[in-house]
Amino acid sequence: MGKGKVYLVGAGPGDPGLLTLRAKELLEQAEVVIYDYLANVEFLKYAPPEAERIYVGKKGGDHTLSQWEINDLLVKKGRDNIVVRLKGGDPFVFGRGGEEAQVLVTAGIPFEVVPGITAAIAVPAYAGIPLSHRDHTASMAFVTGHEREDAEDSKIEWEKLAMGVGTLVFFMGVKNLPQICRNLIENGRAPDTPVAVIRWGTTPDQKTVTGTLETIVEAVRQAGLKPPAITVVGGVVQLRNELNWFENRPLFGRRIVVTRAREQASDFKSILSKLGAHCIEFPTIEIQPPFSWEPLDNAISRLSTYDWAIFTSVNGVKFFMERLWAAGHDVRELKGVRLATIGPKTSEALEKFGLRPDLVPTEYRAESVLEGLAGEDLAGKRFLMPRALVARDILPRTLCEKGAQVDVVPAYQTVLPEHRSEEILDRLRRSEIHCVTFTSSSTVANFFSLFQREEILPLLRKTAVACIGPITAQTAEEHGLATDIMPSEYTIEGLVQSIRSYFESKGKP
């Protein structure tokens, strides 16, 4: 018998925050991940880099693999590998998990089932629709919107369902919505019964259309609503007007491009997402070590000779501390060296090592460091600046003009990552992007290096451009791009607040 095992894992309805801890734990151990169309691909990041990833998505008749082929794949991979079969929602709620488990039993392959949050409860909740409510219903039922194609007779008892259950939730029923409504009305359900159809529920692309059994088909047609969608029938749908929390968030429906380096984008993306934005990651910077550690290592070996160390970014702190540790030292080597930082995040990075900066200018740019040192006699003072390989020269140049000795050493470098530039172009052409964000001059310059200027500029003029501060905005202007959004405080938090204020003034999309 092989060493393999298959885990039938529910990935939840789409919101990354609804993945269970057990599902994440198993993904981290997986040797093979076999995933569906409705399983959020973001979860694949939890799997080890060497894990095999196999997409077997099925949508609207377009099947990558048939169910029989998926069953064979599970048996083949499950004999000798730890397999995570990642399924949208819950594997045992209209997810064919039971069928796949039976195949594994027949093949003698061990398996476990990891329940997921089913779309039946999560999607209505995100649309502001409680499935149960004492003033409306005492019962609910989950029903498939389409039965297996080879079934001769329907297993749905419409007469009992129509009049015997308060709230009905239909899975994947957009295509058959006319028949569903007709069957319910013909079997006694009132034509004015409230109905909601929710597409891509729990995700930033969620869209909800409401009506009645009599009007919902036309409403869905006019809205152009396509699968995947959940349909809710019953008086509880009326509560959406009062309880619609998810779609009422300030940035809901706004698609925002995040050009920040992937290593640094998580906080920015997280804050925007909590406000309802659909964040499209398009990092124009990748952080890498410099070509050689020798200049930084040499500077660290003579730290006691410096009067000041100036850190201009979180990355500068990160790589400096890593090399300090690699040299067999710790922060005690900085005794007697005064510390300056640009920006609160850089200060926080130092403080995590128990170091308190001596100078944190109120304005987060290089020129403000010079203002903070205005009362100092800089002649003969020695400054160390661990920073990016390529950066603005105004600070070291001005310090040298004032008689200081400045060692600028590369602690890291920024490079262009591989990109799917065509995807961004397509979205811009279809007016699907509401805002493009830039958090440094490098993100602007690198962004423009990925496109033909004459093609991208007209498209960007149709969307809002957000820059974190005046230096970044100046770089954007040099590339022919006007800035629509810029915070007074040049931080990620300030930028998010400015984006929020801008779109709140525009109203709902």
TrEMBL record:
PANTHER family from the UniProt entry: S-ADENOSYL-L-METHIONINE-DEPENDENT UROPORPHYRINOGEN III METHYLTRANSFERASE, CHLOROPLASTIC, SIROHEME SYNTHASE-RELATED
Tetrapyrrole methylase domain span: 5-216
GO molecular function, one example? uroporphyrinogen-III synthase activity
Give the highest taxon in the source lineage.
Bacteria
Listed name of the protein: uroporphyrinogen-III C-methyltransferase
Query: What is the protein's species of origin?
Result: Desulforhabdus amnigena
The family line of this record is: Belongs to the precorrin methyltransferase family.
Write the Enzyme Commission number(s) for this entry: 2.1.1.107
Its gene name is hemD
Asked whether the UniProt record includes ATP-binding among its keywords, one would answer no
Tetrapyrrole biosynthesis uroporphyrinogen III synthase domain: residues covered: 267-497
The pathway is:
Cofactor biosynthesis; adenosylcobalamin biosynthesis; precorrin-2 from uroporphyrinogen III: step 1/1; Porphyrin-containing compound metabolism; siroheme biosynthesis; precorrin-2 from uroporphyrinogen III: step 1/1
Query: Which InterPro entries does this one have?
Result: 4pyrrol_Mease, 4pyrrol_Methylase_sf, 4pyrrol_syn_uPrphyn_synt_sf, 4pyrrol_synth_uPrphyn_synth, 4pyrrole_Mease_sub1, 4pyrrole_Mease_sub2, CobA/CysG_C, Siro_Cobalamin_biosynth
Keywords annotated in UniProt: Cobalamin biosynthesis, Methyltransferase, Porphyrin biosynthesis, S-adenosyl-L-methionine, Transferase
Top EC category: transferase
One GO term of the biological process aspect? siroheme biosynthetic process
Q: Which Pfam families match?
A: HEM4, TP_methylase
